[in-house]
Structures are given as C-alpha cells and as structure tokens.
Amino acid sequence: MMASPSSPTIPLTCCSSSSSSSFHPSSRRTKFELPAKSQRSPPSLITSRVGAPDSPLSSIAADAASSAGDRVSRRRKLISVAATLPFLLQLRGYVEEGIIADAAELDNDEYTMIKEEVRKVVSKAKAAGVLRLVFHDAGTFEMGENSGGMNGSIVYELERPENAGLKKPVKILEKAKGEVDARRPVSWADMIAVAGAEAVSVCEGPIIPVVLGRLDSMKPDPEGRLPEETLDAFGLKKCFQRKGLSTQELVALSGAHTLGSKGFGNPVVFDNSYYKVLLEKPWMSSAGMSGMIGLPSDRALVEDDQCLRWIEKYANDQNLFFKDFKNAYVKLVNSGARWRSL
Ligand code: HEM
C-alpha cells in the first residue's frame, strides 16, 4: 500500500522508526512534531558523566563547599582540587573522545548498512525517480518561515500534483527502509538523503557523503513551496534564494535533469550532458523530437546571463560540475533538517 494522508502504511513506518530511535524531545529548539522516545544517544553519555552529581568533579566541589567551617580543611581540599583538576579534565577529555569515537563508529556502521540496503533496490533505471524524491522532500524548505525541508514529510505529500510519479520511488525505498529498521531505526529523511546520493553514484556521478541524524516530521509541509516548471530564470532564482540556495547552486542542482527522460544525454548516466545540450538549444530546432527536450525551467536558465556563465563552466568542466553538485546536494539535504541531539 502506498503512502498518503489517508493511507497509514508509510506514516506508520515513519512513526515506528521514529518512535524507537534516538531522539530527545527536550533537545528541540524549534516547534516541531517529535518522535516519542529515544534509543540511541551516545553523546548524551558525555553530559551525564561530566555534570552528574556523582561525578568526581562535582563530589570534590561539593566537599569543598560543605567544609566552610573548617578553613584549614577547606584550603587543603581546594589545593587538592587544584592539583587534581588538570588530571580530571584530561581524563574527561579521554572519556569524551572515546565516546565520540564510539558514536562515529556507530554512525559509520549505520551509514554502511543503509547504503547497502539502498544499493539492493536502486538500479540505474530507478535512480532518476529516487533523486527527484530528494528535491521534492528538501525543496519545501523556506528560510524565512524556518519550515519545510529535508524531514521525510514527502511520504504525506504524495497526492500533491507536483509529486505525481513519486509513489514508486517511495515504495522502492520503503523496502530498503524496512530492512534497515529491522536492525536499527532510520528516519525517512536520512533514508531519502542517502538514497539520492547513491542514485547519483550508481549512475557514475560523484560520490556524495551524507551525514546521518535527521528527524522525521509527522505531518506534511506547507504547500506551494516547490518551483513550478513554468517559472522563468528570475522566478527560479528567487525561489531558490528563499531556500538559501544561490544561482550557482540552482544551476548545479538542475544538472540532476541529466538523469531521466527529458532528453539530456544518456538517461541513466550522471554527467555534464545537461549543460552541453542546453547550450545547443535543441528545442529551437524543428527536427524530430528535439522540440521536446528539456523543461521550460531548463530552457529558461540558458537565457539568463548569470546562469549561462555557470552552464558554460559546467559544460566545459565535468569535474567542476561534480564538485559543485556534491556541495549543493549536501546543502540541499541539510536544508531545514532537525537533528537528533548530540
Ligand atoms: C529548478 C527547478 C526544478 C523544476 C521546475 C523541476 C521540475 C521537474 C519536472 C516537471 C520533472 C518531470 C517529471 C516527470 O517527468 O513527470 C522533473 C524531473 C526530474 N527532476 Fe526536477 N525540477 C527542478 C529541480 C530539480 C532538482 C534540484 C533536482 C535534484 C537535485 C531534480 C531532479 C529531477 C530528476 C532526477 C528528474 C527526472 C525524474 C524521472 O525521469 O523519473 N529536479 N523535474
């Protein structure tokens, strides 16, 4: 069964993963619907060890305070605190480093596991849909409103006209998510962010590392945030600006349209053909199907001087495109994300 506001399957998966994952409601700084309980929180161990009433540091400090009536003893204890402090601080450093190293190792295992499960379901043929899913989840972010973004809410938004065709990639990832959840709960937001990066790499694009820890929203994001395909370059730039994305990032991210059926090169190879084809403006030709190539929004980019400069750079230098796409992708999948506490 597919996800929709009226269909519980995906939201339930979403809730079940969230409710048993490592999220701390108390750590929320912004109004956001939260998963209920926490399972994994290695970094919070640091807080409890360092500041806890039974820690070496606090017991010595408490001792020193309680012996106010006895100046000699107090002075001795203060001297002892002063002498012990550097050692304790150093010890604390080792403990923290150990815990952080453990946490990093855990994250690494989790990351590898998610990537492995994603690879089992995301073939070259399915890559385009999965990559598009990323933009439709993250692209709802608006900086001014501080809402929307990479939060897995796409699973509640699949009936929206702009999301037509995205049930399939969600369904594909649901299978992988189920496998991961059985071992260690993962949010939809992390799942989609990693899957998009893997989709790019399956199609021979750049390797994009994705940090884990995004929280899922439990409700749809506000509507009308994604750019319409009929926007001109000015409208596209404004729309991306509201998401904190520059003109250069708009042009780099639009290069994702090299995948799929819009006629930019090989539909399953992630390369810089998008920019090469844009410069040729095949839609101006009446020959064959060339009038069908590209979306109005793609064609609009090449008519804008600022965008054109980037299009030319990326058409001439695939490595630059890969580097800039990678950085813009990382920014996109972190847009508006709420993170489990550190
Ligand atoms: C710049 C504004 C954008 C607009 C107006 C836009 C709009 C669209 C539209 C209308 C489609 C065609 C869907 C269909 O064939 O049914 C499409 C496809 C696609 N979009 Fe975008 N998009 C934009 C940016 C992005 C970004 C930033 C990404 C990812 C980083 C992206 C990834 C994709 C992919 C991979 C496809 C091909 C999907 C497939 O063939 O299955 N798009 N986009």
UniProtKB/TrEMBL annotation:
GO molecular function, one term: metal ion binding
SUPFAM superfamilies listed in its UniProt record: Heme-dependent peroxidases
Cofactor(s) the protein requires to work: heme b
Top-level taxon of the source organism: Eukaryota
EC number assigned by the record: 1.11.1.11
Plant heme peroxidase family profile domain sequence ranges: 127-342
Keyword tags: Heme, Iron, Metal-binding, Oxidoreductase, Peroxidase
Bias type Polar residues, positions: 38-47
Gene Ontology biological-process entries: cellular response to oxidative stress; hydrogen peroxide catabolic process; response to reactive oxygen species
Enzyme class, UniProt record, top EC level: oxidoreductase
UniProt xrefs under InterPro entries: Ccp1-like, Haem_peroxidase, Haem_peroxidase_sf, Peroxidase_I, Peroxidases_AS, Peroxidases_heam-ligand_BS
Region named Disordered: 1-54
Keyword Oxidoreductase appears in the UniProt entry: yes
Biased composition range(s): Low complexity: 1-25
The family this protein is said to belong to: Belongs to the peroxidase family. Ascorbate peroxidase subfamily.
Name recorded for this polypeptide: L-ascorbate peroxidase
Organism of derivation: Corymbia citriodora subsp. variegata
Lineage: Eukaryota, Viridiplantae, Streptophyta, Embryophyta, Tracheophyta
